[in-house]
Amino acid sequence: MENFIEVKDVVKQYDGHIALDHVSVNVPQGCIYGLLGPNGAGKTSLIRIINLITKPDSGTVTIDGHPISEDDVANIGYLPEERGLYKKMKVGEQIVYLARLKGMSKNDAQREMLQWLERFDLVEWRDKKLEALSKGMQQKVQFIATVLHKPRLLIFDEPFSGFDPVNADQLKVEILRLNEEGSTILFSTHNMESVEAVCERISLINHSQVVLEGRVDEIRQQHKKNIIAVDLQKDEVLQPCDELFTQLPPAMGNKETLIRLNSGVAIRDAIAWLNEHHRLNGFHEILPSMHEIFIETVKG
After folding, report:
1. pLDDT at 252
2. Is the distance from CB of 153 to CB of 184 less than 8 angstroms?
3. Could you tell me whether strands 66-67 and 58-63 are parallel, antiparallel, or unpaired per DSSP bridges?
């Protein structure tokens, strides 16, 4: 898979503070890419450089094989963390106005806008001023304005901030749909559940440097703790087997028995022993969540 965005060895300083310290990130074409990190790590600084809002002190950014330029901005949809719309302007007029700034015709913008308003149940608010909408509804309007012109690259900075779980799920569905239609998507978020739900690859930035990167499924495999959930029949009590595993305290709300395999022990050997000594209904390997990996990596 070819890279659509390539950030190479980027450095950015503000008044002596190093925001990005030789950061390199490659975003493949058609990928949903998560940019993770604690507050102040440098995520937003990198996003602003990709959007040409600021320039790096050194390093390069290329898009689709060439140095990124002002001509590429029309093919970028950017939803900043600091939301900003015209509060006195009507919803429909505002969406069409912003779409026309990105090169859409008025007719095309109006047609696409109506489709998006229907998706987000906002049709009845089309002729209302933005200030009449709730915060969540205003964020939906800004999301629509970001994606309406069908850009090849979508950049979302904390897109789920302020959304309740129902609306956050709706946003995830739309992000996945936009990706299926061909958009490459880069977003920063603190919502680790959404990372597991939608991201194919991630980079974790901490203290201005990339400290973890790769495919989400591979990262979870790399950080596994050799923990197996074993489902025994209800009258069974796990027998100890110190040479193979250690039993762990039960997880809250989990009726399965948890064991940690000793170093070098294969899952098949532990399961063979369990089958020999117990009536086993099933088992599965427990992989760490991206939330756990995030905390472990940042604290480490």
Report:
1. 60
2. yes
3. antiparallel
Which residues are within 8 A (CB) of 213 and not within 5 positions of it... i.e. 6 or more apart?
Answer: 25, 201, 202, 203, 204
Record the pTM: 0.88
- Are 227 and 286 spatial neighbours (Cβ–Cβ below 8 Å)? yes
For the beta carbon of residue 60, count every other beta carbon within 10 angstroms. 13
- Where the chain has pLDDT below 70, the residues are 1, 251-254
Using the 3D structure, point to which of 220, 245, 275 is the last residue of a domain: 220
Alpha carbon 7 to chain centroid, angstroms? 18
**Which of 170, 185, 220 is the last residue in one of the domains?**
220
Domains contained in the chain, number = 2
Continuous H helices in 81-191: 91-101, 106-119, 135-147, 165-180
3-state secondary structure of 219: helix
Do 60 and 121 belong to one domain? Answer: yes
Going by the DSSP 8-state scheme, the letter that residue 54 receives in this structure is S
Range of the domain at 141: 3-220
Distances in whole angstroms, Cα of residue 165 to Cα of each of 57, 93, 129, 142, 196: 39, 29, 26, 18, 15
Q: Is 69 exposed, middle or buried (0-12, 13-18, 19+ CB in 10 A)?
A: exposed
The residue whose two tokens read 């001023």 is 129
